[in-house]
Design brief:
Helix 2 packs antiparallel against helix 3. It is built from 4 helices and no strands. It is elongated, with a radius of gyration of 21 Å. The two termini are 26 Å apart. The chain has 164 residues and is mainly alpha-helical. It is 82% helix and 0% strand.
């Protein structure tokens, strides 16, 4: 017996834990890709705003298209991870966190787009206080959504560590 390797049989708790860990590491990489996509989106929008008053809308529209494709691909992969956690690895609790994460990420993207539009309106019409107010309100909502995403990721981390 001494010196023999211990094997993790398919479906064993050890193998399941390793599979969960690998999926959550992939999720972490996907969240990094999301962060980079947001950075590019913001950078592109700043460039778009700086092209006023003759906005380079075709270039910005292309950026929006590319960002949309990136977010769509990331979302599909997160949903696949959630499906595996729920159906193959018997971790519906973790899959539920991913469902909540997806909802908040969708909300964040919508708020980001609304904020970009509001910034343009505020820039085009600085005399209209309502545009400045809308920018402030959307920034506040965006901060709250980002905080909710961080909370979900913390819950996911905590719940996934319970099995280790």
């Amino acid at each position: 017996m001494a010196g023999r390797a211990v094997h993790a049989w398919p479906g064993s708790p050890r193998q399941t834990g390793e599979a969960v860990k690998a999926l959550l590491q992939r999720l972490q990489a996907l969240q990094g890709e999301r962060a980079e996509a947001y950075r590019l989106f913001e950078e592109g929008h700043r460039a778009y705003l700086s092209s006023a008053p003759h906005y380079d809308f075709p270039r910005y529209r292309q950026l929006v298209h590319e960002i949309t494709l990136a977010f769509s691909g990331i979302s599909r992969e997160v949903l696949r991870i959630a499906g595996r956690l729920r159906d193959e690895l018997a971790r519906p609790d973790l899959a539920q966190h991913l469902a909540r994460l997806q909802e908040r990420e969708q909300e964040k993207l919508q708020l980001t787009a609304q904020l970009q539009l509001a910034r343009q309106q505020a820039q085009d019409r600085p005399d209209v206080d309502a545009h400045q107010q809308e920018v402030r309100e959307l920034k506040h909502k965006l901060i709250k959504t980002i905080e909710a995403i961080s909370e979900i990721l913390q819950d996911l981390k905590y719940d996934s560590e319970e099995v280790e």
